[in-house]
Design brief:
heterodimer, A: 87 residues, alpha+beta, Alpha-Beta Plaits, five-stranded antiparallel β-sheet, 3 helices, B: 371 residues, alpha/beta, Aspartate Aminotransferase, domain 1, Aspartate Aminotransferase, domain 2, four-stranded antiparallel β-sheet, 12 helices
């Protein structure tokens, strides 16, 4: 189980996304995004360990402004998933 | 004490409101500054409050609900976003200084539309006549002095048809009258938390159709490397630490109002108005400003023929009846009604006001004016 991060435009968006996933039984948590990933300083993301593809699909169908997706690799670095889902 | 100055600030609050404030002060910090439990509890309260307000006022997305310190703060953001010195702004004849002073400070041209009290047909006709001139309309939904309910649906339709942005001042109507923000198509609606929504002082909401120009610049806990304010709502308009205890109380107040229903609140206040009108009718020394409740909310202004309004309000206060005399920060409304320079004494109700309280206040009033 790898940690996946979904960047969110704002804390409000991250919270709404977390609640949306929760309604589908997907557990995630709101975390501060690592500074190296945001490009603009402080930002928020959703962290989840299971059901990433399902979560990804739900968020894509929503109108929530979520951004890039990352996976934490074994060497402790975040690798961007090869899909540009930024809105 | 009988408190009938609810158009200024509702008192008392629901017990759930004070409990929520207390809970927030003991367990919450600042949202957007971390993901530890006290910060996240605060973040959850903010989101819950945005969602509750969005549902109550039919705002499409909760991000369009922005927290402010009060309605004046919200109106200043809205007006500064849409008016400049070249603007031609049409306002009703019943606006508060929270509208007229920002417009005066900007230096734009302002015209009044409708100065006849309780005459919705005249108000609408005046707006219709001058809408072609206007680049912006700012209008209150209910006069804070007289409780006059303006024909907002029709004014909003006129604005939509003529592509003129509309800013609504819902200071007296939020929580009392139905407001469908999406259907009205207004650019902004401003409201306090501490009146009809029964929240604490120091809270307010700005409902935004689109983004706006910030009034305050500073930290938002987001995009910190960028020196411009974030482009997106609500962060764009919410610099600095939020009033979390206040917002927690506001959330509790909104939940209570939603449970009761605005129609029920309105009917309650209207019954009290009707009761008071019956009680005071025929008092020769009193002049009541009312249309019998046809286009009036739970606010009654009156004058006494043998006492000025400030003195009458003070005498009532000495007897434990809390009301407001004078101009109510709305000289424009008093000018329209012909009640300058003395103003009026205003009685205003809340969902928690009882008929017994109104009856007792009327008795005290009658004794004072006939002394």
């Amino acid at each position: 189980m790898s940690q996946h991060l979904i960047l969110c435009r704002s804390l409000t968006t991250a919270q709404r996304a977390q609640r949306l996933l929760e309604r589908s039984g997907i557990v995630s948590s709101v975390v501060k995004a690592p500074q190296e990933l945001t490009g603009a300083g402080c930002g928020y993301s959703l962290s989840l360990y299971r059901h990433f593809d399902e979560a990804d699909a739900i968020l894509q169908r929503s109108n929530l402004a979520t951004g890039k997706r990352f996976v934490l690799t074994e060497d402790g670095r975040y690798r961007e998933l090869n899909r540009d889902l930024s809105r | 004490m009988i408190y009938l100055d609810n158009a200024a600030t509702t008192l008392p609050k629901f017990l759930s409101v004070t409990a929520a404030v207390s809970r927030a002060m003991m367990s919450m910090t600042s949202p957007g500054r971390g993901v530890y439990a006290p910060a996240m509890r605060a973040s959850d309260v903010l989101l819950d409050c945005r969602i509750a307000a969005a549902e109550l006022f039919h705002v499409p997305e909760s991000e369009q609900v922005v927290f402010t310190f009060n309605a004046t703060h919200a109106l200043n953001i809205a007006i500064r976003s849409l008016a400049d010195k070249n603007s031609r702004v049409l306002i009703s004849g019943f606006e508060h200084n929270a509208v007229t002073r920002p417009l005066h400070a900007i230096g734009c041209e302002v015209r009044f539309a409708g100065r006849r009290l309780f005459d919705a047909a005249d108000t609408l006709s005046q707006f219709r006549e001058q809408i072609g001139w206007a680049t912006l309309v700012v209008c209150t939904q209910v006069s804070n002095v007289f409780g006059y309910i303006l024909p907002i649906k029709e004014i909003a339709e006129l604005c939509r048809d003529n592509r003129v942005p509309l800013i609504l001042d819902c200071s007296q109507s939020a929580g009392v009258l139905e407001l469908d923000f999406a259907a009205l198509g207004a650019a902004f609606a401003a409201m306090p938390g501490h009146k009809g929504l029964i929240g604490p002082q120091g809270t307010g909401l700005l409902l935004c159709k689109d983004s706006a120009i910030p009034l305050l610049y500073g930290g938002t806990g987001s995009d910190s490397l960028v020196q411009g304010m974030p482009a997106y709502l609500p962060d764009r308009l919410e610099a600095g630490t939020h009033n979390v205890p206040g917002i927690a109380g506001l959330l509790a107040g909104i939940r209570e109002i939603r449970e009761r229903g605005t129609e029920s609140v309105f009917q309650h206040e209207r019954q009290l108005l009707s009761f008071m009108l019956d009680r005071l009718n025929g008092e020769p020394r009193l002049e009541l400003f009312s249309d019998g409740g046809r286009s009036q909310s739970g606010v009654l202004s009156l004058r006494c023929r043998n006492l000025d309004s400030e003195t009458l309000a003070a005498r009532l206060g000495e007897q434990g009846v809390c009301v407001r005399g004078g101009l109510h920060c709305a000289p424009c409304a008093h000018e329209s009604a012909g009640t300058l320079p003395d103003g009026t004494v205003r009685f205003s109700f809340s969902p928690l006001t009882t008929e017994e309280q109104v009856d007792s206040a009327c008795e005290t009033l009658i004794q004072i004016v006939n002394y």
